[in-house]
Amino acid sequence: MRHTQRYQALPYNPKLKERAKELRRAGNLSEVLLWNQLKRGQFKGLDFDRQKIIGNFIVDFYCAEKHTVLEVDGSSHDDKADYDAERDAYLSGLGLNVIRIRDKDVKQNLAAVTAFLLHHPAFEDNHPTPSGHPSTGGESRQHHSPPMEGWTAKLDGVVLPPLEGAAKLDRGSQTLSPITKRF
């Protein structure tokens, strides 16, 4: 369900409207694959927007109900660590959770990415509303989720997978590949 007050309280740069439309039409493969799992309430009944303008940024996916941004990072992000850090800090300052997922993971193991998101604290039913959202007037609170079983969390927010074959999904079917996230 769309939370209009939260949705409209976010800063918006109208100059980015055409660019957001272009990005939606361009259809990056990994974003389209993930979008097919998220759209029309298919993911936990939640409403997501694709290529949502927030301030001077366009985020890949945004869920107003959970105050969460999903970013799919391809190789173009390899040289943009400073830009991504600035962007994440801005979004976190608005009280938003930012979850980064590698493009490669979406393409090679979409089931593991979906399982990761299903169990992520940002999407739990009892997950608290971030207090730093402009509509609440509170301070920003960052949410650090524990790594998945067998994974290692580094101080920079990157989560490393276990050694090959060391940890499996609950169903025991596939080894998870690296998924990075920052909060």
Automatic annotation (TrEMBL):
- Residues of the region (Disordered) are 124-152
Domain of life the protein comes from: Bacteria
Indicate the segments forming the DUF559 domain, all copies: 15-116
Q: Which CDD domains match?
A: Endonuclease_DUF559
- Gene3D superfamilies listed in its UniProt record: VSR Endonuclease
Q: Where is the composition biased (Polar residues)?
A: 128-139
Coiled-coil intervals: none
A single Pfam family it belongs to is DUF559
Q: What is this protein called?
A: DUF559 domain-containing protein
Q: Which organism is it from?
A: Thiothrix nivea (strain ATCC 35100 / DSM 5205 / JP2)
